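As noted in the main text, all predictions were made from sequence alone. Below is one such record, for Acyl-CoA thioesterase.
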Amino acid sequence: MPDKKYTCEIQVRWGDSDRLGHVNNVLFLEYAQEARIKFFRDCIVAAGVPAAAMVVRKMEIEYLRPVTDESAPLTAEVYILRIGNSSFEIRNVMRDRHGNTCAVADGVLVGFDAETGTSVPLTEAARAALAEYAVTVTA
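Prediction:
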């Protein structure tokens, strides 16, 4: 993992639990989005990189452990796995209050031009800011 990592707290809301008493799996997409928004605000925009449009191209979640009201709040760690020309891969590791890894969400985000509906290259400033949180993943 990198020397510099981004970590934030994600609150589990009362309505997030299903009939079985654990957080519904679909809500992990929302938790990953919340962590991603905080990461961009606190690390990328705060580093002086102008806010730019991004779209999620792909999202994959591995569910490892259930989350309940008692095991919340979650801690989300954000890492960058790969930086390309117009896209990058991001990882969210979500841990419960005891430090247990509950889910790992990997996504691909693409720079986007809303007027043309096409992808756009990431700026050098964006690449540099993302690179500060990059990790090397081994199989």
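The beta strands are 6-10, 54-63, 74-83, 87-95, 101-113, 118-119. The helical segments are 27-45, 124-131. These features were considered when defining construct boundaries for the mutagenesis experiments described in Section 2.9.
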